[in-house]
Write a structure and sequence with these properties.
Blueprint lengths: L1 H11 L6 H11 L4 H23 L11 H29 L13 H9 L6 H5 L4 H8 L1 H15 L4 H16 L3 H28 L22 H14 L5
Length: about 250
């Protein structure tokens, strides 16, 4: 997958995004200091904790007679923790090899805010566990992959229509993940649901003038009369978060 991404980025002749810029500038910024060892230790510790949670967290709490919704959440939680384990291990490997993220810690993105502590960002667990929308889950699940697909697939296809761009982006993502029909079906379903949710919440925001869009409104919001703390906005956002908690991805 990494080789394919690198070939595509070079073939377009465009500046590489995220992971590729890190590779180019790694030798110029690599230093053995307390920050380096601290970031390696933090990523390694988070990786081990994620592995323990994936295998042990609910093993002593869930029984065969447990409520089906608790069992469903347990399965989804275990799957996410397994992904966090791999992601944090990837971050630890990248940092230990001297590769750093090209995200500026002064930027406002969530990834940029975490660079100071982790050095390199693959996963944003908080945005996955407590997402505002499925769009946020997709972005936070694999930050380098998201940046690559957004730069070299979605933006190129968007002039032909948003739906087509979203659909083909998820198709290409499925191909990059390997020849697995179940995985393809899962990714395409997520793509369809994220597109539907994004447009549905955009329509609701227009109709009720409320802060219920898939992406957070600016503070204070000047586009909507109902702020995020209003009853309708709070209930809508909480409902969206509740059903997202049971997603395996």
């Amino acid at each position: 997958m990494f080789v394919v991404q690198r070939i595509v980025s070079l073939g377009h002749g465009l500046p590489s995004v995220n992971i590729f810029q890190s590779l180019v500038h790694a030798n110029n910024t690599f230093k053995l200091n307390t920050v380096y060892f601290g970031q390696v230790a933090i990523n390694t510790t988070c990786s081990i904790l994620s592995l323990l949670l994936a295998n042990c967290a609910f093993a002593f709490l869930i029984t065969d007679n447990s409520w089906k919704w608790i069992a469903a959440y347990s399965a989804a939680f275990s799957f996410r923790m397994s992904h966090y384990f791999v992601s944090y291990l990837s971050q630890a490997t990248m940092v230990s090899a001297g590769y750093i993220s090209n995200e500026n810690s002064n930027q406002k993105s969530n990834a940029a805010k975490h660079v100071r502590f982790f050095g390199y960002i693959v996963i944003l667990p908080w945005d996955v566990e407590f997402p505002r929308s499925l769009v946020h889950v997709v972005v936070a699940w694999n930050v380098p992959m998201h940046c690559f697909l957004k730069q070299y697939v979605f933006r190129i296809l968007k002039p032909y229509g948003t739906f087509l761009a979203v659909f083909l982006t998820y198709v290409i993502s499925s191909v990059l993940h390997g020849l697995n029909f179940q995985l393809w079906a899962t990714l395409l379903t997520i793509g369809a649901w994220s597109y539907v949710e994004y447009n549905l919440r955009r329509k609701l925001a227009q109709i009720f003038s409320a802060c219920v869009t898939a992406n957070k409104c600016t503070v204070p919001c000047k586009r909507h009369k109902e702020s995020k703390t209003a009853m309708f906005s709070a209930y809508s956002n909480l409902t969206a978060h509740s059903w997202l908690c049971f997603l395996p991805t």
